[in-house]
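Anyone else keep sequences and structure tokens together like this?

Example one:
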Amino acid sequence: MSVKAFKLVSAVEREMLMGDKNYINIECIECCGKNLYIGTNDCFIYHFLLDEKVSTAGKITFAATKQLHKYLGLKKPVSELKAASALTRLLVLCDNTITLVNMMNLEPVPTGARIKGAVTFTLNENPVSGDPFCVEVCIISVKRRTIQMFMVFEDRVQIVKEVFTPEQPCAVAVDGYYLCLALTTQYIILNYNTGISQDLFPYCSDEKRPIVKRIGRQEFLLAGPGGLGMFATVDGISQRAPVHWSENVIGAALCFPYVVALDDEFITVHSMLDQQQKQTLPFKEGHILQDFEGKVIVATNKGVYILVPLPLEKQIQDLLASHRVEEALVLAKGARRNIPKEKFQV
């Protein structure tokens, strides 16, 4: 039984990005407020402003206005982008180097501050430093079996810690002092302050792409064996039942109370409240699925789309209209904090 939880809305059409240049592919995206950044395989960053429009009938559309684009001067793809809005900086990973650029004009910082030797990186959304003018960056280093923690300021970077891992790490998420790592054969939780680690469950990174995603304070979502989306806390336990994904999930995102997953052919939506699959949206050639401050964005090589959640009150009404009272109650209670009080009473 399906629920209409999300609508797929186009945000950036291929013509806006590449015109008639077919060789251009989208490699990565970042969204911060209305600012959408796209990194491409030909070493360009594009900056768009996203404007959300609501028609009188309640239909949501997005208008993307191109601000500027910038060539980074290498013959390599831009592989990752992360915004640090407090610093008005965009962290750009290209050719194993993280460069700091200005979020508005995309110019590199004058000091030339950069982090070299990064395979991939992530930001600590639950930072430990307490300095509002600094972001904590965790990189998987090109040095074998090594993770490095950096503090990144407006115009300089500073290494804080280097941690060695029992196997080669291939994906990482951070919460406070805790690293959730996908290694070659298993997932682990590692406290980089104490060095204490805890095994979670086995996983073969040669067969499938690991997924490690921080979904809240001290909690992560992982692609487990047998097509399961598993939840794990920093204590190595699971407080929620797993969701059943397909075997070949490429990406996952959280938009409470739903977990959204992308595979080769579909976007699937599962409820965290009862673990049931609620919606399936056909989506071919997708390779990116991420959530940014509650906005879920998917992309193919050529276009960017936004998954717009339908109001929870509307979802509850639809469930009641189709006599699915139990599901409506579960959703109403579970999503109570996301529904205005007077509407919840009704």
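And example two:
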Amino acid sequence: QDNGFEQFVINYCNEKLQQVFIQLTLKEEQEEYVREGIPWSPVEFFDNNIICDLIENGSRGILAMLDEECLRPGAVSATTLLGKLDQTCGGHGRYESRQTQSARRLHDASLAPHCFRLHHYAGKVTYDVSGFVEKNTDLLFRDLSQAMWAARQPLLRGLFPEGDPGKASLRLPPTAASQVKASVGALMRNLYSKNPNYIRCIKPNESKAPMVLAPELVLAQIRYLGLLENVRVRRAGYAFRQLYGPFLERYKMLCPRTWPHWAGDERAGVETLLSEVPLPAEELAFGHSKVFIRSPRTLFALERRRQERVAQLATLIQAAVRGWRCRTRFQRQRQSQILIAAWFRGHA
């Protein structure tokens, strides 16, 4: 019920992770269909970039305002911070406070005078600004870190590398908000450089009791995690896509015209291959550089046919090798018999 600076930081990180999820599973997938020339009706979804920008904008974001207020000379308090946020973010559609509500002629008794509210992707959250400034400026003083670095214990020296006089800096230590922003930025760069997979955990009930399912709670989580839009995109889209070259190399043994080698264009080879396989036309789509298969059932059928064909080819190879070995052995025995017979006649 009471959300402070820590919950604000946690929700900011959740918004950034949700942004990666939206970017990789909703936005990029639909863009790929358009890029590949596949007929596609766009599925509408909410892009939470507007919320992330409200929090982390370099000059007018909430984190920037918080750092600016902490570094400002003079008396600084939660009231002055809230006033600065109202002045800077008051016109944003995802931010509200008592002052912005009064300007819009609204009245909400649940919003206290010392709080502001953000419309997050997963719903509205009210934050109490009390303690924001103190927790953001909770710095480790330079003389304390130097004292720890001067200790004889190697563990302490390793825990406080900033206390090394040779690396001492006259710059102010970074605030908690700037450290969180830098850490989240490094996490996002790491995730965008990979091909992440997602496991969404759904809480079945609030009491953590076994074998109890609260449908309203589960539905709310599914809606707030963006899973409804994701399911709509997956159902309307294609479960499997692959470049023409690797696809043709893997399944070319299913068609006599593409086995063992196809000398023409890769897309033409894939179309020739799939024309020999009894698959429904609506299950396949041919893009500029990739082949798309709609349902996993179709892909499993292709894999099963490939396994059967590989077994047939292995049997054919084994039969050819056995025939060669038997033929070679027979020819050697025949030559030996002729030689023995010739020597025997000469001796007789």
